[in-house]
Structure formats: C-alpha cells, structure tokens
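Work Package 3 (structural annotation) set out to generate three-dimensional models for the target panel prioritized at the project kickoff. During this period the team completed the workflow that converts sequence records into discrete structure tokens, so that structures can be stored uniformly alongside our sequence database. As a representative example, we reproduce one entry of 272 residues exactly as it appears in the project archive.
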Amino acid sequence: MHLLFWRKPKYHFDIVVAKTMIDFSRLAYKDEPEIREELKSNGFEFRLFLNDPETDTQGFVATDSSKIYIAFRGTESIIDFFTDILIVKVPFPPTRRWFFKPKAHFGFVNSYNGIKNQLLDLVSTLLLDRPYEVYVTGHSLGGALATLAALDIRERFRPHVCVYTFGSPKVGNRWFAMKFNRSVKNSFRVVHDDDLVVWLPPMGFYHVKKLVFIDSEGKIDINPSLPKRIIESLDDVFAALTGAAITDHFSRYYAKWITKNYEEFVSEMDKV
C-alpha cells in the first residue's frame, strides 16, 4: 500500500513557464501604456502598475483565468543602483526570534516596501475571488524583489507560488535562504554563463534554490554538479577581466537562450 498523499510534490523547470516569465521580466522595463497594450494583445488582463517614485520601484500585476503574474523591473536608474549597494541586513519576514533570524538586503527590502501595500491589497482581493496560483518573476534587481514578494505572499496568504528569476543577486542571509526554500518549493534561479551580478553581494549573503544554469551555447543544466560550479566560478573570474561578466547579465541574452530552448521544445512536441 502506498500512501500517496504523504509524498511531497516535485517541481521541475518548465521551459514554457520560463518563456512567459522572461518575457514578463523584460516587459517590466517598459512604461505603463506599453505594458497594458502588450498584455492585452497576448490575452492577459492588466491589473496594476506598481510604482513607487521614492525608491523607483516598478513592476506590474496581470492575470489569466487561473494565475496571477507579478513582474518586477530590474536596475535601471541611479536610485536603483544605490538600492543595490545598500548591503546592511534587516529582518525579513518579521519574526520574534532572537537568534537565527531570516534577514534580507536592506536596499531590496526598502525597495519592496515601497510597493508592498498596493501589491498585497490586490493579491488579497484576487485570491478571495478564486484560488489563483501566483507566479512571480524579475531580472536583476527585479529578481531580488520577486524573491521577497514570493515569500511574503506565501507566508501571508498560503497560495501556490511559483518563482522564476533571471540574473538575481543574493537576497538574504543563510536563515532567509533556508526559510524561502522551505516555504516556496517551486522556485528556479536562472543564471546565464558568466553573469557577475549573481555573485553579489559577495559576503554574508546566500542564494535560494534551485539553480538553472545556461552555458555560453545556450544549454540548460538544472542544479549543476559541484565540480562544474567550481569550474564555472573560475571562468567567471577571467570573464570579469574581459567584460563578459557584465554583458552576460543583460536580459536580452537570457531571453535569447530561453527562447531558443522553448522553440526547440515546441518543435519536438510538434513531432510527437
């Protein structure tokens, strides 16, 4: 007799979902009218333009019949740059613990707090209407904000949450990463080849799971082995000297390889 209800669900990287998420991550860099128009033309309902002038945080919320999509814009302005370098840690999410507190990057938390109330109010209202699944994404700084938002929404409302980030920096301390990994199971952190940003901040911060690595030829490797990660780390050091560590962070390269793999997947499905 197999007690199937005791088995934990396993989540797999889905290239179809990844294609939607990288498209939304790039769309978040555009102005509100462009976002509205593109969502409408692709069959999504625009719900909210997230914007906080003080922290220059931007993003949007959209829905289809079963999912809420939340996308955050990455680093684009001087204010965003200062958000990135404010590396003091603050408790997140709030806890009464004296020790082993989950803490996150102050700049990221401050940026998220700028749009938190409007985002949570809308998500709460939508979840009362129907049991939506929540999909959260972002590139660069947007990936860090997506990580914070996903954990916050999961802890507050307990919906199914799915996260795909692209070139995200590290967000919090060890205890933050552990809490996120326990709470948000369906999460994928996509890294393109020699992207330098994913190594930042350099000390005292940890990445959340699960690593999806895209090499220089566009091949995708899910949770690569430790020897491969070490080799790639050494390669990143040399890439920092050539400029590849910067260009590999650009969202267009993430989009290029995700789209290539998506098209190959669709082509294979058409043959079946």
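The longest strand covers residues 45-52.
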